[in-house]
Amino acid sequence: MSALLVFVLALVLLAEFVNGWTDAPNAIVTVVSTKVLSRTQAVALAVVFNVIGVLSGTAVATTIGKGIVDLAVVNPPTIAASLIGVIVWGSVAARFGIPTSESHALVAGLAGAALGVAGPEALVWSGWRKVLIGLVMSSAVGLGGGFLLATLVKKAFASTAPAATGRRFRHWQVVSAAFMAFNHGSNDGQKFMGVFAMVLVLGGVLPHFSVPLWVVALCAVTMGIGTSIGGWRIIREMGMRMVDIKPWQGFCAETAAGLTIFSASHFGIPLSTTHSITTSLMGVAASGRISRVRWDIAQKVAWAWLLTFPICAALAFLASLLIKAVFPPT
User: Fold this and answer.
1) DSSP secondary structure letters along 90-121
2) pLDDT value, residue 295
3) Most-buried pick from 41, 103, 245, 321 (CB within 10 A)?
4) 97 phi-psi bin (left φ>0, alpha ψ -120 to 50, beta other)
5) pLDDT at 329 over 90
6) What is the Cα–Cα distance from 267 to 313, expressed in whole angstroms?
7) What is the dihedral of CA 224, 228, 234, 239, to 10 degrees?
């Protein structure tokens, strides 16, 4: 295995680490903000169920690994360029407590790098249709699902004493947080598995695209280590400033987002778990009073989402041009 290939694989693992670090709040933001679990307990729960989720299948990994860019026209340096955008953008946004989508950063980076090397023919449009479906699911379905589930729960428990409802949902929210963490791993964690396997194919280590068990295990552990760090700035912005929720609302948000992600993972659709949980939180909060959402913070989050695609694509495009100049194709 060449030094270049080892370097690119190391970048994939670094991106997977950043993914676990910056997306940990997706699984635990509500359970921490409602004080159902302590930070330490929530992180431990997220690590365990994220890893289990990563180990649960490879459908999303396959979409990312061979359904976004044509493997015949890209090479390991191209993949390295795409990962640079993911790592830089995710790290900078997390520094300011802004939740971003590593999923969109990854596909945008792959697209930008591939365009820089081979032009539009490098893109596989069948895979991009799944990306667009995921974009709608993570935003619209998350928002609507959170609003609907919260409305149903309010009606179902309208005659129950608030103290009894609170005690019940404090237990149920632990289950919903575990469900959300599992689904985060099953979708987000798989994406970098797909990239890792893609690099192995391009480097001649694998004869055709597949995701060996050792790749699954390596990426799962790497993501788990990243998750263990937390992402407290993002948790503070999303769960303690953007919305003010109670345990039953946290349960609704996690359940709605988890079901959205579960459905997408089953069909190999890569979507943004960040979008799913954030819009679910907005939907749940808005089911009570629209004023319960701090829309100034929500607006900042929305701007970060909109900027992810062009910024990561541009970073990867520029990086690919630089790499092509230093290592011209033979």
Assistant:
1) HHHHHHTT----HHHHHHHHHHHHHHHHH-GG
2) 65
3) 103
4) left
5) no
6) 26
7) 100
Q: pLDDT tens digits, residue range 79-101?
A: 888 888 888 888 887 777 776 77
Query: Are 223 and 24 a contacting pair, CB within 8 Å?
Result: no
Query: Of 302, 273, 299, which Cα lies nearest the Cα of 25?
Result: 273
Task: Tell me the DSSP string of 272-285.
Answer: -HHHHHHHHHHHHH
Rounded-to-integer distance, Cα 105 and Cα 87, Å: 9
Euclidean distance between the first and the last CA atom of the chain, given in angstroms as a whole number: 19
Can you tell me which residue has the tokens 């997706």?
A: 26
Contact 305, 100 (CB under 8 A): yes
pTM confidence score: 0.83
User: Per-residue pLDDT tens for 176-228?
Assistant: 999 998 998 888 878 888 899 989 998 889 988 888 989 988 988 888 888 77
